[in-house]
Amino acid sequence: MDADRAAVAAGARVARSEFVWLGEGPGLVHAHVARPVVVHLDRFQAHSVLDLGCGNGWLTAALARCGFDACGLDSSHSGIAIASSAHPEVPFLRADALLPPAPELRHRFDAIVAVEAVDHVAQPRLLLQHAHQMLRPGGLLLLTVPYHGYLKNLGLALTGRFDLRLQALEDHGRLKFFSHRTLATLVQECGFQSVQIENLGRLPPIARSMLLSAQRPLD
Fold first, then answer.
1. Which domain holds residue 151?
2. Number of H helices, E strands in the chain
3. 15 part of a folded domain
4. What is the pLDDT confidence band of residue 185, given thresholds at 50, 70 and 90?
5. Residue 180 neighbours by CB under 8 Å, 6+ apart
6. How many domains in the chain?
């Protein structure tokens, strides 16, 4: 019984320290994000792609099915366990993107995709600096965050849905809320150039997400 209680306590500690994934299916965000991401990667002629903050690996596997040499990275034990079990043909790494990347990951990827990752960390510059290190010179960065604009925020407030958007009661919920300007500034501060941002999902004033593309400069 003591061993059982210790195992339960250990599981509870892990659950508190990470976002716990329960299934292998796509997230709601993938419905309007996956296709534009693939279009950008194809247009860039990327081959090796890192899905940074891959969660349960659904998007990573979708990228692999599209012909990309895709790899997923996440700090969540449960996410990587589900991803590895559901998609054994795809490589997944459990690592903290806020720590310096392993030497074998530096300058390895043609492109890095980070879907709703940068808005969930307290130090987004660290995440982007490490992404910069893992990209090859001239490599492509694609990241998405929820769209926040005046009309949309006003509508959320009037309909009483602001608490849902802020995720105040969710463990590992959103910590950062970006506009076009602040998102572009953040990425440029981390050494990227050729920054472009587009809105995805719904009409532009009430879009669901922003998709940013940028490049690491040629050394």
1. 21-215
2. 8, 7
3. no
4. very high
5. 197, 210
6. 1
